[in-house]
Specification:
Elements lengths: L2 E5 L3 H12 L3 E6 L7 E3 L2 E4 L4 H4 L4 E5 L4 H11 L9 E2 L4 E2 L4 E2 L4 E2 L4 E2 L4 E2 L4 E2 L4 E2 L4 E2 L4 E2 L4 E2 L4 E2 L4 E2 L4 E2 L4 E2 L4 E2 L4 E2 L8 E3 L4 E4 L4
Parallel strand pairs: 1-2, 1-5, 2-4, 6-9, 7-10, 8-11, 9-12, 10-13, 11-14, 12-15, 13-16, 14-17, 15-18, 16-19, 17-20, 18-21, 19-22, 21-23
Antiparallel strand pairs: 3-4, 23-24
The protein binds acetyl coenzyme *A (ACO).
Length: 209
């Protein structure tokens, strides 16, 4: 049984805690800078992120349980901890093909399917019931929202957010730090640092995440 510290204590952290329990592991602390001092909620330690210095023993691992891709990245940079200290979380009711590589710190939620040959980066979120088909590449700090479908050979670049219920057709590439709006259908490549929405998806903003 692994002991895990979550950085972040929001709704997203609650879902990750449930994924961790489903793996038979335990959350021992939830650290968040909105807390000014250490306290206990049941057996779970809560407090500011600086508590990590005392809590990070050899047998403990961490997950950044924060939905914002940019904030997740900035916390990983701020903590500057070796990548092996980040746990990989896969809900017991997710289906992840045995050939799939999942990067450290990534979280795969209930109902997700990740198919053969997919490559999953670090600190990525695969939200409930999303589908990542064969040979997709999903880079670090991405968020594939609930019900989104990446069909075969899709690439999603670092930091991009694919909105709930959207679909990306085979072979299409989404750049880095781009947002695909909820319910969109992406039928051609989308550049980096933009927001694209609609069916078919069109760029509506150029600053991205
Ligand atoms: C467990 C969880 O909850 S995980 C969270 C998952 N979250 C999501 O899936 C949210 C995805 N976010 C969205 O879809 C958002 O609407 C965004 C990011 C695409 C756009 O948000 P904003 O930048 O605030 O854009 P804004 O709301 O100002 O809309 C700009 C225009 O785009 C349109 N638009 C916004 N989102 C969409 C969309 N998903 N599909 C179609 N059109 C859209 C708006 O109607 C508006 O059009 P108008 O200029 O003609 O009035």
């Amino acid at each position: 049984m692994e002991k895990i510290i979550l950085i972040g204590d929001s709704g997203h952290a609650k879902v990750i805690e449930d994924c961790i329990r489903s793996q038979g592991d335990n959350v021992i602390a939830k650290l968040d800078d909105r807390y000014k001092e250490k306290f206990y909620e049941g057996v779970i330690i809560k407090g500011p992120i600086t508590l990590l210095e005392d809590l990070l023993t050899d047998e403990v691992k961490i997950v950044i349980a924060i939905g914002s891709n940019t904030i997740r990245k900035s916390i990983v940079e701020r903590l500057d901890i070796s990548k092996e200290k980040y746990a990989v979380i896969i809900h017991s009711q997710a289906i992840v093909c045995s050939s799939v590589k999942v990067g450290h710190g990534s979280v795969i939620m209930p109902g997700v399917v990740v198919n053969a040959g997919a490559i999953i980066g670090s600190h990525a979120i695969f939200n409930s019931n999303s589908v990542v088909e064969h040979d997709c590449v999903v880079e670090d700090f991405t968020h594939i929202s609930p019900g989104a479908i990446l069909t075969g050979n899709v690439k999603v670049g670092q930091g991009s957010h694919v909105g709930a219920g959207s679909t990306i057709i085979p072979g299409v590439e989404v750049g880095s730090w781009t947002i695909v709006g909820a319910g969109s259908t992406v039928i051609s490549n989308i550049e980096s640092n933009v927001t694209a929405v609609g069916v078919p998806a069109k760029v509506i903003k150029r600053e991205g995440l």
